[in-house]
Design brief:
The complex is a heterodimer of chains A (361) and B (310). Chain A is 71% helix and 3% strand. Chain A has helices at 12-36, 41-49, 51-54, 56-86, 93-111, 119-145, 149-171, 205-223, 225-235, 237-242, 247-271, 285-295, 300-324, 328-345, 347-350; strands at residues 2-6, 351-355. Chain A has a two-stranded antiparallel ribbon with strand order 1-2. In chain A, α4 (56-86) crosses α9 and α5 runs antiparallel to α6. The two termini of chain A are 12 Å apart. The model of chain A has no long low-confidence stretch (mean pLDDT 86). Chain B is mainly α and 310 residues long. In chain B, α2 packs across α9 (187-213) and α6 (145-163) runs antiparallel to α11 (240-262). The chains are: A mainly alpha (361), B mainly alpha (310).
């Protein structure tokens, strides 16, 4: 019978190895799922993980998509990882992403058709501020009234979706849009658009921001007292309090940063790849980023790699939908499975598995 | 706007229908949390219940079988959670989130061929004599069996936790798993059983949405109902009776805003649709504001990982 023995501290080797193990397990389980759907599992897995990058026919289109999809995922996940490390669970990044996009786009639409250099920076600031404010709601309710931030941040996603609907149908609707829902097309408004910086790479300002966020998060966590406090509060909350770490400041900091980053991600998306505020421009990056954060071990460099991998599954998912007729929902289930396997494999990081006498438990 | 078009008797009767999915899910989660486990996957289990119940009901043309398989589907998903958190000792918050993300994707996959079909109808049980009483009859005695069942379940859960020995043991596990373990109770087994019960209840609640309340299958149709059920458990301070009040309060808000939309109220539709979520948040704030009282009933070991050799 299997018995678990707690390690004195998490194993470094397994911390790095479990995501790989989880990806392999997901490929096997996903293959079984695709086989059950009546598709060739090997073709499907190859289409998801290999063809977007290396197939001559698709790579020209798919490679730029990798950065376009990874950018928002990494940006949001970096913010979430700070809170997750400290035991502060912001799971409403999707809502903050929407609110950031609305606030940022509103700035551009307010000054349209003015052409000035400051418009795009102002939009980025407004986007970050929108996400920040939306994340401050669970933050302040938590610090002031002790309300559960998990539930409040999640419920606010549904509120944000309703605000988005009313923006797309009402207060941000294109006055020259012949009554169709959706705002003016920001990508056709040069001062407010977020185009590719280097043609053919998919690199836009949001991707740049994601890379900068990775570097800053790394420095914060390893070189700054705030990062130390975050790690301390997560690993030993009591010790953190004795050391004078204010839990309330930490909550507001973590929620604020993750909200601002999610809001920024929303703005970059709406000004670039999505192009306009529409009812369903958000595609669930805020939720997928939760998986990215865990898959990246809440470590900035890990999140960078995990974000790229998740982006790959999105693109591969679209390809397999197009080529094999695998439903888009299968990819969502595939991504959820990945998180299951990761959490299951993590037992190896924190425990030694011993085989021996059955223990009563 | 024409407020006279809103019939208060029908309003209260439909309130009970609107509240039933959340009531069922919240009762299940109440038992899970009383055993010291925080399962944030209610939304995922509900939607798996909704889709599996719908598919079975359509294929067999029997709503009863649909509900049975919905409970089994929710339970199956909850057992993944049980395996991860109780055997592989994973973080409960993260695992619950994974359950919801997976459930939303997997349900969409299962139900892709069932969009836009009508479910076999669930007949109302009109209680003889009582259902003919004016006002009270239509409100209380003209419902489908699941509504009555959910009310019975409130009483059953309340009595189980308060008066039975098994309920006492379950609460002991939730208050201090180390003490319960030292006394010789099988902490892990009790928790797995509680999680499975919670999954079955959430599955039933989901199927009530897809088979009675809507009654159709659409992707993501639970629309946060599972999260509201979690909020209602906190609102109820872990008491079965108050779960009933919370769920019916929420049902009332939902039905009222739908009626106001239909009556053409002079309020933007979006504001009406977001009101149930806003009111849930408001209620959470009110109930959590008094720190000493809010924590009084919370199971002490809620969300903590139990490791026997500890």
């Amino acid at each position: 019978m299997m018995r678990l023995e707690r390690r004195p501290e998490p194993s470094k080797a397994w911390t790095a190895a479990t995501p790989i193990l989880a990806v392999l397990a997901t490929m096997i389980a996903g293959g079984i799922m695709f086989a059950a759907l009546g598709k060739d599992p090997f073709a499907a897995i190859k289409l998801i993980f290999w063809d977007p990058l290396f197939n001559e026919q698709f790579a020209a289109f798919s490679r730029p998509q990798l950065l376009i999809k990874a950018g928002p995922l990494i940006l949001i996940a970096i913010g979430l990882s700070l809170g997750f490390r400290a035991g502060i669970w912001n799971i409403g990044a999707e809502g903050q992403y929407i609110m950031g996009a609305i606030c940022g786009a509103a700035v551009a639409l307010a000054v349209y058709p003015l052409e000035a250099w400051w418009i795009f920076p102002a939009m980025v600031l407004a986007g970050a501020f929108g996400g920040f404010l939306w994340a401050m709601i669970p933050g302040i309710l938590k610090t002031r009234f002790n309300t559960n931030e998990i539930l409040v941040s999640l419920l606010l996603v549904y509120v944000a979706e309703n605000i988005l609907a009313s923006a797309a149908l009402g207060f941000l609707r294109n006055p020259e849009g012949a009554g169709f829902p959706g705002s003016r097309n920001l990508s056709a408004y040069p001062a407010a658009s977020n185009p590719e910086i280097v043609a053919g790479t998919g690199m836009h300002w949001g991707v740049v921001a994601a890379f900068i966020a990775v570097i800053f998060a790394y420095i914060l966590l390893n070189r700054h007292i705030m990062g130390f406090n975050i790690r301390l509060a997560g690993q030993a909350p009591r010790a953190a309090r004795f050391a004078g770490v204010s839990p309330n400041r930490l909550i507001l900091f973590c929620l604020g940063v993750s909200g601002a980053l999610a809001g920024m991600a929303g703005l970059f998306e709406v000004a670039g790849p999505a192009g306009q505020i529409s009812i369903d421009f958000n595609v669930g990056y805020g939720f997928t980023a939760i998986i990215v954060a865990f898959l990246g071990r809440l470590h900035p460099v890990g999140i960078l790699l995990a974000g790229l991998l998740m982006a790959l599954t999105y693109i591969g998912g679209e390809l397999s939908q197009f080529m094999l007729g695998i439903p888009s929902a299968a990819i969502q289930a595939f991504q959820g499975m990945l998180l299951f396997f990761l959490l299951a494999a993590d037992v190896l990081t924190n425990f030694r598995v011993r085989f021996g006498r059955v223990e009563v438990a | 706007m024409d407020l006279t078009s809103i019939n208060p008797v029908l309003l209260i009767a439909s309130l009970m229908v609107a509240a039933t999915p959340i009531l069922l899910a919240a009762l299940g989660e109440l038992v899970v949390e009383k055993a010291g486990v925080l399962n944030l996957g209610v939304e995922g289990m509900m939607i798996i219940g909704a889709v599996s119940g719908f598919i079975i009901a359509v294929e067999t043309n029997s709503a009863a079988l649909g509900f049975l398989f919905a409970a089994l589907g929710g339970m199956a998903l909850s057992l993944i959670f049980a395996l991860l958190t109780q055997v592989l000792l994973s973080n409960q918050v993260a695992t619950g989130l994974a359950l919801t993300l997976f459930g939303l994707g997997f349900s969409a996959l299962l139900g892709q061929n069932y969009v836009g079909i009508r479910a076999p109808s669930v007949p109302d049980w009109n209680i003889p004599l009582m259902s003919d009483v004016p006002v009270i009859g239509p409100i209380l005695f003209q419902h489908d069996p699941i509504v009555y069942g959910s009310l019975l379940l409130v009483v059953a859960v309340w009595a189980f936790l308060k008066y039975t020995r098994a309920g006492l043991i379950l609460r002991a596990v939730g208050e201090s798993h180390d003490s319960a373990h030292a006394l010789g109770y099988k902490v892990r087994r009790i928790r797995v059983a509680a999680i499975a019960f919670g999954g079955a209840c959430a599955g039933l609640g989901g199927a009530y949405l897809s088979l009675v309340r809507v009654p159709q299958w659409t992707e993501g149709m639970t629309a946060g109902a599972g999260w509201i059920a979690l909020a209602i458990v906190v609102f109820a301070s872990w008491k079965a009776g108050r779960v009933l009040i919370g769920a019916y309060l929420f049902g009332g808000v939902t039905v009222l805003q739908l009626n106001l939309q239909a009556a053409g109220a002079n309020v933007p539709v979006e504001i009406l649709s977001m009101s149930p979520y806003l009111i849930t948040i408001l209620v959470l704030v009110l109930i959590s504001a008094d720190r000493s009282r809010a924590a009084l009933n919370a199971p002490a070991a809620l969300g903590r990982v139990f490791h026997a050799s500890g």
